[in-house]
Amino acid sequence: MSATEMTNQDRGASERPFGFWRRSYAMLVKEFIQLRRDRVSFAMIVMIPVMQLLLFGYAINTTPRHLPTAVLIQEDSDLARSVLKALENTRYFRFTREVHSVAEFDDLLQSGKVLFGVEIPRGFERAVRRGDRPALLVAADATDPVAAGSALGALGAVVQTALAHDLHIGDPPQLPFEIRAHARYNPAAESRLNIVPGLVGTILTMTMLIFTALSVTREIERGTMESLLSMPIKPVEVMFGKIIPYVIVGFIQASLIVSIGVLLFGVPILGSVVLLAVLTTLFITTNLSIGYTFSTIVQNQLQAMQMSMMFFLPSILLSGFMFPFAGMPVWAQYLGEVLPLTHYIRIVRAIMLKGAAPSNLQYDTIALIALMLVAMTIAVTRFRRTLD
Amino acid sequence: MSLTPASASDIAINVEGLSKSFGGREVVHDLSMQVKRGSIYGFLGPNGSGKTTTIRMLCGLLTPDAGEGTCLGYDIRRDADKIKRQVGYMTQRFSLYQDLSVRENLEFVARLYGLRDARGAARDMIQRIGLNGREEQLAGELSGGWKQRLALGACTLPNPQLLLLDEPTAGVDPKARRDFWNEIHALAAEGLTVLVSTHYMDEAERCHEIAYIAYGHLLAHGTVDEVIAKSALSTYTVSGDDLNGLAAELTGKPGIDMVAPFGTSLHVSGRDKSALEATIAPYRNTRGWRWEDSEPSLEDVFIDLMNRSKDNFQ
C-alpha cells in the first residue's frame, strides 16, 4: 500500500465528544486482554480463594475482655445493680449503653454496636426473694464466637462468686436466679460461620491490592508508559481503565467464595443477596483504588508488593477478621477504622449471619466510600504525567 | 514565542534555548532549532548526546528547565495535551504492549485517539504496513523489523501532523531500513513533518535537513551540503599499500585532526589546510600512495565535531 492512500479526514484527530469514556474504554479493553493473556494471574483469581477457604478451617482462640455491652433494665433494684456490678467485675463486659426497650436492645446487637446485651426483667428482685429463680437474659452476638464464647462460658461461675461476695450470702450452692445465655445469630458458636464471611473480605483485599498495585509500575518497567504518556489520555482515564476490569474479576472471586461458603460450609445468607453484592462491589473498588494509589507512589514492582503487604497484614490483624475488634486497645481500633476490611467484615457478617438491613450498615458503607474517594484523589494527583 | 497555529503554518517546530538537567548533569544545553513543515529533519549525535531528551521535551513528556517554543504552533509548556493529539512519537525502545496482538495494539491506539472506526482504522493500517496475516500475532513475538513497522503504524494511525522518531531503525536489517525510509518519504510527501534521530550516515543523507548534537549542544545544522561546507574541514583520500602504517605515522602530527580508514582508502583530514598540506608533503610521492584532494564525508565532519566538542565540554 502506498502512503498516499491514507485518508485525510481524520488528519489531526480532532476532538470528538465523550472523549473521557472512549479513552477509559480503550484502556479497559487493553487491560482485559492483558489479564486474559496472563495465565498465572488468571489462575490466581480462582486458586487463591479456593485454597484459602479450604485451608482456614480453624479459628484463632483468644479471650477478649471489656466487650461492649448494652443493658436493658426493666427494674431498678439493689439486686439488679449488684448483678450488673458482678457482671462488670468479670471484666468480660463493659456497659456502654443503657436502653429501655426491647427494640432498641435488638437494634444495637444487630448493628454490631454492642456484642452483648443483658436484660434484667421486671420483678426480678421480688422473684429472687420468693425463690422463683427468675431468668437473667444475656444475649450475645455470636457471629464472632471467639469474642462471645469465653465470656458466655465464664458467666455462671464468675457471677456466682462475685454476687455471693456482694450480697453477703456466703457461698450458696446455687445462684438465686438463672442466667439464660442466648448466643444469637450463631447459636452453635461455629467458627466457620465467622471465618467464611471474613475470608471473603480478606481474600479480596489481598488479590485486589496486588492486581492494581502492580499496574502502573508494570507499565513503567516494561517501557510502555512512555508510549502511553505520549498519547492524549488523562490520569483519571488511566485509573478507571485499570480499575474497572478488576471490579469484575473481584466480583467473580467474591461469588466463588460465597458460593463455596454456602455450599460446602453451610454458611447462611440471611440478609439480601443484592445488598451483599452491591456493598461487596463497593469494597472491591475501594481496595482497587488503594492498590492503584500504591502503584502511583512506588518506583518498581517489588516496592509495590512490599507496600501491599504492609497494608495487608494490619488488615488481617486489626480488622476484626482474626481477633475480635472490640477486644483491641482504642488506638488499634482507630487504626482499624481506616482499613476497608474492618468495615467490610462488619458488613458481610451482618448481612450473611444477622440478616442486617441497609439502615444497619450506613456507617460502614459511608466509611468505605470515603476511603475509596480519598485513595482515588491521591492516585490522580500522584500520577506522573511526564517522565521528569 | 507568540506564534499562533495559523501563522506557524510553515514551521512545525520552533524552540529556543531549551535546557534540561538530570541530577545536576546538564543533558541538553541552550538548544534552539526550527523545523519546516513537510520536511524530514535528521537528528544526529553520539549516544547520550541529548537527542532523546530533546524529543521528549518537544512532545510534552519532559518539562524543559529553561527555554520555550512551539510545536505545531502549540506552546510546549502549556499545551502538551494538544500537542499529544497531533504528534506521533515512536520511542527508541519498543513501547507497545508485548502481550497484545498487532491488531489489539492498533485498536487500542485508535480508540485512545477517538478514531471513528477503531477496528476499520486498525485493519487499514495492518494492510498499509504489510502485517496482514500477522494481525493475531503477539507484538512481543514479532522480529525487530516487524516491531518497528508496527510502532510506525501505531504512531501514524491517528493521522498526526508531526512524527517524532527516536532511532527508529536501530537494529533493523538494511532492506527493512530502506523500506522504512521509503515510507517516511511517502509520509513527508503527504505533508507530514518528520523529526528522526539516527546514528546512520546514509540515513542522515536521506534527510532534507540535519542537526548534529553532542553533549547536549547543537553543533551544526542545515542541509547535508551546508553542514559539510561549514565544517571547513580539508580531507585527502589516500590509496595504496600499508595504509595502516601511514595512519600510525600521521596520527597526532601537527595539522592532522583525523585519520580514518574507509575500506581500501584512508581519509586524512585537518581543519588547517596549510598545516595539513605541510605535514603530508613528505608522504605524497613515496611508497606508491596516491593522494587525492577530496570532500570530507558527513561522517568525517561529525567525528571531527565530536572530537572538538569533547575538548570543549568535557
TrEMBL record, chain A:
Please give the Gene Ontology molecular function terms for this protein.
Answer: ABC-type transporter activity; transferase activity
Record key words, sorted? Cell membrane, Membrane, Transferase, Transmembrane, Transmembrane helix, Transport
Report the GO terms under cellular component.
plasma membrane
What is the recorded name of this protein? Mannose-1-phosphate guanyltransferase
Source organism, top-level taxon = Bacteria
Domain ABC transmembrane type-2 per the UniProt entry, residue ranges: 157-386
For this protein, the record's Pfam families field holds: ABC2_membrane_3
Where mainly located? membrane
- The stretch of residues making up the signal peptide is none
Q: How does it sit in the membrane?
A: Multi-pass membrane protein
Instruction: List residues traversing the bilayer.
Output: 40-60, 195-216, 243-267, 273-298, 310-332, 365-383
Source species, please?
Bradyrhizobium valentinum
Annotated localization: Cell membrane
State the similarity comment.
Belongs to the ABC-2 integral membrane protein family.
TrEMBL record, chain B:
Which intervals hold domain ABC transporter? Answer: 13-240
CDD domains for this protein: ABC_DR_subfamily_A
**Keyword terms of this UniProt record:** ATP-binding, Nucleotide-binding
Q: Name one GO molecular function term.
A: ATP hydrolysis activity
Q: Which InterPro entries match?
A: AAA+_ATPase, ABC_transporter-like_ATP-bd, ABC_transporter-like_CS, P-loop_NTPase
Which Pfam families does the entry mention?
ABC_tran
| Record-linked PROSITE patterns | ABC_TRANSPORTER_1 (PS00211), ABC_TRANSPORTER_2 (PS50893)
Record's function text: Involved in beta-(1-->2)glucan export. Transmembrane domains (TMD) form a pore in the inner membrane and the ATP-binding domain (NBD) is responsible for energy generation.
Which family, according to UniProt?
Belongs to the ABC transporter superfamily.
Q: What is this protein called?
A: Multidrug ABC transporter ATP-binding protein
Species, as recorded: Bradyrhizobium valentinum
